[in-house]
Amino acid sequence: MQFRPKMFHVKHHDTTENKEAVTAEEERAPEQDVESPEPEVTEASGVIAEETEQRGSGDATDDTASTAPAPGKSARSGSPLAGFSDTPLARELSEITRRRRAIEAEDLPVPSKTRVFTIANQKGGVGKTTTTVNLAAALAKSGARVLVIDLDPQGNASTALGIEHRSETASVYDVMINDVPMADVVQKSPESDLLFCIPATIHLAGAEIELVSMVAREQRLRSALDAFLAERDEPFHYVFIDCPPSLGLLTINAFVAAREVLIPIQCEYYALEGLSQLLNNIKLIERHLNPELNVSTILLTMYDSRTNLANQVAEDVRQHFPDQVLDTLIPRSVRISEAPSFGLSVIGYDANSPGSLSYLEAAAEIARRGAPIAQQ
């Protein structure tokens, strides 16, 4: 199916006429006495009021001091937190609590055989590495054994999982170029005993040139991965391959090694423009190199509900790919951006943040809609 992104036209309000109308209205309106608004009762002011009462309970010297309302309290309000449950902040906290309890109450199924995902999009900055790391951490937290293969020369997935990937470290480069077994280069992430990573080093930047002259150059990663999975006493439930932002030989190796493709799409128009080319390339690989390959999952990332454009992009993608797009949207989040600097996924960095909960929900969707459940 040919995907053609629509041109979006976001309406902007012309405020010139509105400003003139407001000015004319102000000139016609008679002068009125403006009453001072009552002080707003907030959670912070209530806490301060309680502390003030406790410190000054024995210091009152006259009837006026003893009968005056505490700071932050109105005469009509019996509690400093009166009305707080109706505020946007309270509703947000309530929703986060509900989502967290729903996640904790669910036991996710594990697949009967290893599911191998390639996370790909030739556009940079759409959240490929972030999605790879956080989905892997979320599934590991649920009890699944997960392997991350960092196929991006930048090595950002290795950094986020706390994995050593200096130039002298044995890496996926050695696996693909020097036929080193994967078992010799895999490392356990300090974040979880069920989370493993094959790191990338700077040597991987020259791998595409070296692969050109090699026999079966498109099959190098798959041959190594199949051999590694076959010899494991404890099978991996999921393998996630993080791709570079290109459609070169490294990405082709990832497509050939995988069975499923997960495409992260940023909720902006530019992210849609290269989607058609990516889908065409996946079709070519499916036809000539890997008949098992299919686009099983599309995840919308960096979603900002305050913008019309983000909602229009999400609607357009859902219309074209109703079966592949996850219900979960990954929001823009400071916590998601901060986590890699601590060598952690956002799951390990702040498990109760909105970004963390979104990735946990996305991982649950992937687990539920995936392979048949293994017999327990």
UniProtKB/TrEMBL annotation:
Compositionally biased intervals (Acidic residues): 32-41
Biased composition (Basic and acidic residues): 13-31
Compositionally biased tracts (Low complexity): 57-72
UniProt feature, compositional bias: Basic residues: 1-12
Ranges for domain AAA: 115-294
CDD domains, A to Z: ParAB_family
Region (Disordered): 1-87
Family as reported in the entry's similarity comment: Belongs to the ParA family.
Role of this protein: May play a role in septum formation.
Name of the protein: Chromosome partitioning protein
Organism for this UniProt entry: Homoserinimonas aerilata
